[in-house]
Q: What sequence folds into this?
């Protein structure tokens, strides 16, 4: 194996630390130290790069090489520092936090983020701790986006945290990409993992949801009862049974009482003297 296996990776123009040529006299100094300390050099000059890793070689304070080809590489270590950056996909779970939705209701929200490093140079030089940088910004983006939507909406066409998961997912990922691009990070997924009302209003919201469910059920029952009554009157008319307006009103009233009643109904017969 030789240093020929090493190769340089093109750096984006906005990278703060481009690859630089190390002066010739610096290389001569490295080789001189390598010869003097040959027994130590022979054991420390072998550097292994694993799949989905990048090795940054900094020589006398300058970024000299970026090696991302898996295998064993030979580098004289004197005057150099070596930093391994993983480009594997990483999943983090943001801490659950209480956030006020668009209506001011406190909700507890948590999320997961999938990302990977696409530019090792930016990840190492532009930010101090790249993974912590992503996690902190993910929490900030989560609060900013969640506060733009209500927890739930009466109108299904209006987006809410409960029914607009795809839209919110895309917005979360896009906003986070803008923030972490400087760190050479690409976000592949940003999705909500936890979403529920905060304990201080959970009981009140449960009562409201139960009341809304009862009202919706009543609307369904009444609509169905009206259809049944209309069908009954049309059926009588189709069979030639003549029903006066007052009799039709009594039939409709009795049927609606039976169909819309919660409990068992009883017939009441009027008594005349």
A:
């Amino acid at each position: 194996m030789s240093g020929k296996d090493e190769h340089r990776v093109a750096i984006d123009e906005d990278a703060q630390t481009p690859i630089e040529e190390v002066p010739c006299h610096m290389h001569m100094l490295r080789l001189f130290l390598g010869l003097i300390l040959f027994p130590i050099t022979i054991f420390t000059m072998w550097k292994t790069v694993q799949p989905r890793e990048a090795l940054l070689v900094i020589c006398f304070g300058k970024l000299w090489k970026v090696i991302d080809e898996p295998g064993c590489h030979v580098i004289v270590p004197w005057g150099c520092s070596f930093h391994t950056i993983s480009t594997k996909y990483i999943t983090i779970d943001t801490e659950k936090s209480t956030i006020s939705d668009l209506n001011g209701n406190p909700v507890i929200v948590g999320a997961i983020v999938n990302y990977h490093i696409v530019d090792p140079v930016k990840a190492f030089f532009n930010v101090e701790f790249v993974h912590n940088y992503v996690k902190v910004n993910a929490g900030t983006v989560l609060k900013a986006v969640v506060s733009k939507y209500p927890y739930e909406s009466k109108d299904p066409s209006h987006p809410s945290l409960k029914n607009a998961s795809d839209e919110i997912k895309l917005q979360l990922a896009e906003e986070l990409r803008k923030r972490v691009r400087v760190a050479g990070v690409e976000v592949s997924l940003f999705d909500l993992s936890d979403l529920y009302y905060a304990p201080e209003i959970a009981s009140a919201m449960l009562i409201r949801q139960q009341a809304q469910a009862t009202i919706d059920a009543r609307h369904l029952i009444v609509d169905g009862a009206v259809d049944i009554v209309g069908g009954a009157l049309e059926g009588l008319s189709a069979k030639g049974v003549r029903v006066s307006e007052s009799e039709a009103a009594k039939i409709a009233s009795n049927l609606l009482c039976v169909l819309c009643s919660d409990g068992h109904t009883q017939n009441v017969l009027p008594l005349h003297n």
Q: What stands out?
A: The longest strand covers residues 185-197. The CA atoms of residues 34 and 40 lie 8 Å apart. The helical segments are 24-36, 38-44, 120-125, 130-146, 165-180, 199-238, 245-260.
